[in-house]
Amino acid sequence: MNAPLPKDGQPMAFVSAQALRARMHEAVNDPHLRSSFRGAMDFLMAKRAAQFPDEGELDSLRDLSEHIRQYSLSRLPDLLEQLEANLTRNGVQVHWAENADEANAIMLQIAQRHSARSIVKGKSMVSEEIEFNHAMEAAGIEALESDMGEYIVQLAGEKPSHIIMPAIHKTKEQIARLFAEHVPGVDYTDNVDALIQIGRRVLREKFETADIGLSGVNFAVAETGTLCLVENEGNGRMCTTVPKVHVAITGIEKVVEKLEHVAPLYSILTRSATGQSISTYFNMISGPRRGEDKDGPTEVHLILLDNGRSQAYGDDQLRKTLQCIRCGACMNHCPVYTRIGGHAYGTTYPGPIGKIVSPHMMGLEATHLLPTASSLCGACGEVCPVRIPIPELLVRLRGEAQSAPHADPAMRGQGAGHDSLLTTAWRLWARVYSRPGSYRAFSWLATRFRALAPKDQKGWTASREPLLPAPRRLRDMVRERRS
Question: Which pLDDT score is estimated for 333?
Answer without folding.
Answer: 96
